[in-house]
Amino acid sequence: MNTSEKYVVKFGGSSLASAEQFKKVCDIIKSDERRRYIVPSAPGKRCNDDTKVTDMLYACYDAVALHNKDATVEFEPIKKRFDGIIADLGLASVLSLDNEYEQICENFKQKAGSDYAASRGEYLNGIILAKYLDFEFIDAAKVIKFKSAKSNVGRVFDAELTNAALATMLSKKPYAVIPGFYGASPSGKIKTFSRGGSDFTGSIVARSVNANLYENWTDVSGFLAADPRIVDNPEIIRVITYRELRELSYMGATVLHEDAIFPVREANIPINIRNTNAPFERGTLIVHNSLDFEETSDTPIITGIAGKKDFSVISIDKDGMNNEIGFLRRILTLFEELDVNFEHIPTGIDTLCIVLESSELDKHESLPEQIRQVAGINHIVVESGLAMLAVVGRGMREKRGTAARIFAALAHNGINARIIDQGSSELNVIIGIVEDDFNKAIRSIYDIFFNTKP
Ligand code: ADP
Ligand code: ASP
Ligand code: MG
After folding, report:
1. Which ligand number lies closest to the CA of residue 14?
2. Chain-wide mean pLDDT for the chain?
């Protein structure tokens, strides 16, 4: 084993949900000296009807800061979760978080913000894990930097400052625990990434130390070809490229945060997704280019399928649209002015469809009317209740008949494809269907590629 190598190792919420899970995590870390920088999430669910600590923290903060409930009473179940882990790990005589709890309750009363509240799950869990491993604890507020909140959403991460701060700090520490999900703005205000953001922290840390590998440990044996809550026992993807993974995670394969590949991709650091409950399995390797990796002849044409619900489509119809210079620009300028995000724009000669998340439309109910005005058209149809699917695969480019198989599978199961869009890289096909067909569509596409011989 080459001990000058460095691995950054992130553990998700279910991997750290109880003392029993902490023990598995500790065994994994201690079994390989290269596992030096550990990024923990907050404790997740111990069973299906359990609540994640992050969700408990958001709810507790709302009760205290918005509804003036008693902070100590509301915080009690959270305190119990952490104290339970400490006691079950046998750390009660050497570690007490009472002062931390007191400080957190006080800050909740002072309305420190919901980002601050949510971040405490990772913060406290990091302290426990560091103690248990006998590694140094580094508060992410010191090394994960956000830009000042002048920017619109106040979630703007400062990659350069962070990289410098982390590289300096970690060059002096051979082993450390750095909690995931949060950092701080220049004024010291705690900020979080979006949900699932500990994956992103892991990637940032991996880049800053130029890690040889970023291991992401979770509760499934790798990136699966479809959501295991929809398809029974989907195949494990052995090797996937960053680009394929981004397409799938953006479209709902939540096993890895959709932004987590950016920092490591820049430094060409592979990610290995592994299962804390089955550490002997090799999981999924995420690489820059699958050619760097031995591609076997049975590499599937389709790498995976993912999908998301709650989309709407605005359909615009105007004779001669193709000859009207600036037509699309006027519509897109309106979107920019209103700060509305869209996902896809499939076009015809006289038609244009804009696919967007329904929540974007809810924010601007007058959007269709405004489009009508800037585009000088009468006919606009808005349809909601759509789901978008992404069928992704680097093998698609070389294989004829892939689209035919996808649409045959859908047609065979009585599913109408309302929207079809193929990415210019020929890496993916995006399909819009009605939400009621969501699970059936994913299963039928999975079946035709993974269970049926061509
Ligand atoms: P963690 O808490 O470890 O970060 P997450 O809950 O964020 O874990 O992600 C793991 C979960 O993602 C799995 O338990 C699984 O239900 C879900 N999931 C959805 N799509 C996929 C997929 N394509 N492959 C693997 N897991 C998936
Ligand atoms: N604990 C946070 C969440 O539940 C971040 C994470 O788990 O990655 O979203
Ligand atoms: Mg996650």
Report:
1. 1
2. 92
Name the residue among 53, 112, 107 with its Cα closest to residue 80: 53
Query: How far apart are alpha carbons 159 and 266 in whole angstroms?
Result: 12
CA of 208 to the centre of ligand 2 (A): 21
CA distance 243 to 423: 12
Residues with CB under 6 A from ligand 2: 12-13, 41-42, 52, 54, 121, 180-181, 195-199
- List, for residues 81-138, the tens digit of each pLDDT value: 999 999 999 999 999 999 999 999 999 999 999 999 999 999 999 999 999 999 999 9
pLDDT band at 411 (very low <50, low <70, confident <90, very high): very high
State which of 52, 129, 190 you would mutate to test the pocket of ligand 2, scoring each by most atoms of that ligand within 8 A of its C-beta.
Answer: 52
CA quadruple 126, 129, 130, 131: dihedral sign: positive
Give me ligand 3 centre to Cα 148, in Å. 26
CA angle, corner 55, sides to 28 and 94, nearest 5?
A: 50
Q: Give the residue, out of 41, 204, 254, with the most ligand 2 atoms within 8 A of its beta carbon, to mutate for a pocket test.
A: 41
**How would residue 296 be classed by pLDDT, with cut points 50, 70 and 90?**
low
Per-residue H/E/C for 171-200: HCCCCEECCCCEEECCCCCEEECCCCCHHH
Residue type at position 28: I
- For residue 99, the tally of other CB atoms under 10 A from its CB is 8
